[in-house]
Amino acid sequence: MNERPTLAVGLMSGTSLDGMDAALVRLHGPTHAELVDFVTRPYADDERGELRHALAGGDAPSLARLHVRIAEWAADAVETLLAQAQVPASDLALIAFHGQTIWHEPPAVTWQLGEAAVLAERFGVRVVSNFRARDVAAGGQGAPLVPMADVLLFGSPDGPRVLLNLGGMANLTYVPRGAQERGVLAFDTGPGVAVIDGVARQVDARRSYDRDGLIAARGRPDESVLEDLLADPFFQAPPPKSTGRERFGDGYATALHARLPGPDGVATAVELTARTVAAAVGRWTPAGTEVVASGGGCHHPGLMAALARQLSAAGGYPLRRFSELFFPGDAKEAVAFALLGYLTLHGQPGNVPAATGASGARILGTVTPA
């Protein structure tokens, strides 16, 4: 690979539906990424509503229009990022555009909306997009894809580490040692903040999420309801596995709120995430391994406290924040996709078959020329 520094933008819009993240990244080869700048373009309430409508099964015209609108929101984020960093688009080697997952049903299909041509036309830069489809075509889950970045960029040179992402869904990567793919294990553990925030919206329609954990702090988890929720076969299934809002989304949150209206429902959702994450870590990784957390869930005090408690009980796993070791954790997934775009343009695979279940390593994504 060419070791000359490469300037790239990574874009990520995940299952939390909070906004479009954009990271300006300087890549010094595939094993060192420098975060130059980062912005989030928040989704307005009506935009978030469009996404939820699509997730619930939108009609063809609305999905087609949303396909372009998501790319326009991404372009807004890139323009803000480049202006803030005072970097011209002509300096960019690539834009890596994840798009927005609308339907995830492996091994049949995974579908991300977002027209890459809009970005290529706006900025005159090569755009790498549609990252997940090739892995699914190779028999994989199409997720998680961040493990390649966890291996190359965020593993510890001194020993094992668990990289935990608390987005709308929660997923983990176990890296035995930095830049060593052998022995890596990665999978979705279940809901991250999607159910927590979905129940919070049922409690208070003025909120899009449980800001600062204030609603959950007023409630108490219901053990009998938790027992029922934890019986879901997804939690017992072995990896590789992945999930999304099709299973743990607004419908799931509405059903939980119907059983437990008010703050107790939110507190129960918090405990569900903490217990399922800790159970997965305890079952599949060596006791005492350091767990490094990133994602929106790190901003929920109740979730972090419950997770620390459950990880300790599961096997003495210390919990640290990603920002303590690297850069702000909210930028991690956008940085990871910048790396995946870099690998694609260099003809290198971006999936970890042990994580996705694909039949082999694959070069990911579609390249839209400048």
Topology:
Blueprint lengths: L5 E8 L5 E9 L5 E10 L2 H11 L4 H26 L8 E12 L3 E5 L2 H8 L3 E3 L3 H5 L9 H8 L6 E6 L2 E7 L9 E7 L2 H10 L10 H4 L5 H8 L2 H4 L8 H4 L1 H10 L3 H22 L5 E5 L6 H15 L3 E3 H4 L6 H14 L7 H4 L9 E3 L2
Parallel strand pairs: 1-4, 4-6, 7-10, 10-11
Antiparallel strand pairs: 1-2, 2-3, 4-5, 6-12, 7-8, 8-9
Helix pairs in contact: 2-3, 6-11, 6-12, 8-12, 12-13
The end-to-end distance, rounded to whole angstroms, is: 21 Å
Which structural class best describes the helix and strand composition? alpha/beta
* Share in helix: 40-55%
Total helical segments: 16
Q: What is the N-to-C order of secondary-structure elements (H for helix, E for strand)? A: EEEHHEEHEHHEEEHHHHHHHEHEHHHE
Which of globular, elongated, flat, extended, rod-shaped describes the shape?
globular
The CATH architecture of the largest domain: 2-Layer Sandwich
- pLDDT averaged over residues: 95
How many beta strands in the DSSP annotation? 12
- In CATH terms, the superfamily of the largest domain is ATPase, nucleotide binding domain
Uncertain runs are none
What is the radius of gyration?
19 Å
Instruction: Domain count, please report it.
Output: 2
Question: In what range is the share of β-strand residues?
Answer: 15-25%
What is the CATH class of the largest domain?
Answer: Alpha Beta
Largest sheet, described in full?
7 strands, mixed
CATH topology of the largest domain: Nucleotidyltransferase, domain 5
Describe this structure in words.
This protein is α/β, with parallel strands linked by helices and 370 residues long. It has two domains: 6-140 and 359-368, Nucleotidyltransferase, domain 5 (2-Layer Sandwich), CATH 3.30.420.40; 147-317, ATPase, nucleotide binding domain (Nucleotidyltransferase, domain 5, 2-Layer Sandwich). 42% of the residues lie in helices and 21% in strands. The protein is built from 16 helices and twelve strands. It has helices at residues 45-55, 60-85, 116-123, 133-137, 147-154, 194-203, 214-217, 223-230, 233-236, 245-248, 250-259, 263-284, 301-315, 322-325, 332-345, 353-356; strands at residues 6-13, 19-27, 33-42, 94-105, 109-113, 127-129, 161-166, 169-175, 185-191, 290-294, 319-321, 366-368. The chain starts with 5 loop residues before the first strand and ends with a strand. The mean pLDDT is 95.
